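FORM 7B - TANDEM STRUCTURE REPORT

SECTION 1: FIRST PROTEIN
SEQUENCE AND TOKENS:
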Amino acid sequence: MLGVRFFDIRIVMSVYHPGELWTAHGNGKVLGIGLGVDMAYSFADVMRDVDKFLNETSHESEVVLIKLQKERSNDQDDRFSATVQTALTPYQSR
């Protein structure tokens, strides 16, 4: 049986960890990294967890759809896009 999972992930460039993407919702600060409401997970960790889930034998018929959204408008577009592309590179062949 086929299972489908959908994630709406909003990401920002970390203020205190240059070059890192973090999940966020809103414009507040969590853990001092300029994130929003209670969403202090690195995007790299989220993607590793999704990859781990899909590679488990019990989930071999699962499909994961991910909608990525830039949460903060003050992130530079070119730098943000390049950072997202780099973060997704290990998962592009799947």
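SECTION 2: SECOND PROTEIN
SEQUENCE AND TOKENS:
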Amino acid sequence: MVQRIGPVVGVLGTGQESVAHRSMRDRLLEAGLGSVVRYYALARKYSNVNREWGWQWVFPQQNRWCGRESGSQGRHHLDPRVVQKAVKRAVVDAGVSKAASCHTFHHSFASHLLEQGQDISTI
């Protein structure tokens, strides 16, 4: 079995983002808005799993959805196209002459791992 391990801690930074995200999630939960949609069978088996930190979106959408029948509200994960457009806009604004996209970060991350002597076939 291949274990996939990566230096995520270094990528995430000091943890301030996580603290801010958790406090935002806690405020939303108190207002009844912070739960995550989960599949029906999982919802029956684990009734409060949608409120736990591990099930929250890391990059939630800005706008909330509202269920027609139940009236419940929530957020989905941020659409990848939003991030891709933001990266393209940042590349243009920064005046970078080479083509760059989110996939460029994938290769850049792999290059940094190789520079550190990591075996990227296990990542």
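SECTION 3: OBSERVATIONS ON SECOND PROTEIN
Residues 16-30 form the longest helix (15 residues).
Residues 8-74 form one domain.

SECTION 4: SIGNATURE
Preparer initials: ____
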